[in-house]
Amino acid sequence: MSAIRDLTRRQQPVFVPEPLPKKAPAKAEEAAPNRLLRDESRFESRSPAKAPVELNPTVPVKAPVPGKVDIEGIANIKDPVARNHAITQGYYELSNQMAGLLGKENANWATFGVWASKQAGVSIRQEDLPKAFMDQLKGDNKWLGALTNIGLGAINPLAPALTEALKIPIRDALNRVSDAIADGNQKLFRDIAPEFQRFTETFKGDTKYDAAKVEKYLEGFPPGKENLKAAFSDYAKAMFEQDPNKKAELMLSANDRVGVHEQSLIQGEVERALNAPLKETFAPIVKATLDAAGNALPFPANLAYKGAKAAGLVDKAVDSVVDSLTGQFRQFATEHMMKIGLPEGSLSLGDDVKPGAQGDFPEHLRTIESGELNKLLSQYDKTPNSLKGSSANDWSQFDQRMNYIVDLFRSRQGDPRLFDAP
User: Contact at 8 Å (CB) between 265 and 188?
Assistant: First the structure.
């Protein structure tokens, strides 16, 4: 039975890489930065939302080298929206170039990078975030209930003034979030994309594994990129591996190692995106608005306000309101950021990875035989060989991100839809 099973597992269809779509590569010099979807009109429902930017924006270009991604030119684009679109397209081209050497039976890291970058673009563009958050505040009386609960019901009519005053700090907080995501998107592409291009340029046209050539190629990795060096060593071995089980494991090992490098590199940007100093932003605005409006109340309501302030009740109300605002903002931003859009639909990073079209894991990764890969997975996968327990409670924690990512890679690596154009 085992012989029949092995034979069945090895009979895999051959995937021919699809030709790359023609596109104009981005140039480092372009128009002045365009902070799309950040104007204050997005905060008001009466103003129509701007149409989303298309995936391939028109950007001035220079003549490209055929088959070569202009990585430096893309990374130097100043407009974060245009740059993100170019990065997403760049990953798509690199993914297909890698597939020309490795096949499409297994997604490579750049393939996943396409979808992660596309999702980052949603946050960078802030699509409907400001308006949606303001609508949530306008319809949610819980945070304003703090005023009534401590005897400040007289100033509850200040709700419209508070909502209006909070437009600017909420916009600024959202800008900081999207700036951090844009910086991480750029940083990763500038650091990792050149290694994918160097790999495809080095081994294009090879017909067999050349250990000496691989060793010389690996010498090109500088100190600090040990995980990338190990990853591309695995990709090189996978090129000519005929056993589909071993090849899938080599690809997963490589993808996970790039993932470790990736997540280590952007730790600062992730923390900055999720831990903006919101209390420091909201508190002065809320306090100033209450003071101005409270003192302007007609007699005797203004005396009641001043008495409440002298008794410390206003400060207590401000703290309660700000805590609620901060919680709502973090929940809102986290819900928006903590997901990844895939061809099958969005996955929430706060939930366990859902089984894919091939079940929990694709056929050739249902069991792991490689000792090296098992050792690697044991460092990051908290629930080995199971998708249960893969969710992240705090995406700013490196170990929680990696726990999710290794299961995401393993569960979706065999899905050919990942090679679709984003």
Answer: yes
The long-range contacts involving 312-320, CB below 8 angstroms and separated by at least 24 positions, are 313/150, 313/151, 313/152, 314/152, 314/287, 314/290, 315/287, 316/150, 317/146, 317/147, 317/150, 317/152, 317/290, 318/283, 318/286, 318/287, 318/290, 319/283, 320/143, 320/146, 320/149, 320/150
* HSE-up of residue 25 (Cα within 13 Å, Cβ side): 23
Residues 370-411: pLDDT tens digits?
Answer: 999 999 999 999 999 999 999 988 888 899 999 999 999 999
Tokens of 107: 């997604």
Q: Is the omega angle on the peptide bond into residue 223 within 30 degrees of 0, that is, cis?
A: no
Q: Is 200 exposed, middle or buried (0-12, 13-18, 19+ CB in 10 A)?
A: buried
pTM, to two decimals: 0.74
Say if CB 97 and CB 8 are below 8 A apart.
Answer: no
**All residues at 6 or more sequence positions from 259 whose CB lies less than 8 Å from its CB, including other chains:** 109, 402, 405, 406, 409
How far apart (Å, rounded) are the C-alpha atoms in residues 84 and 98?
Answer: 21
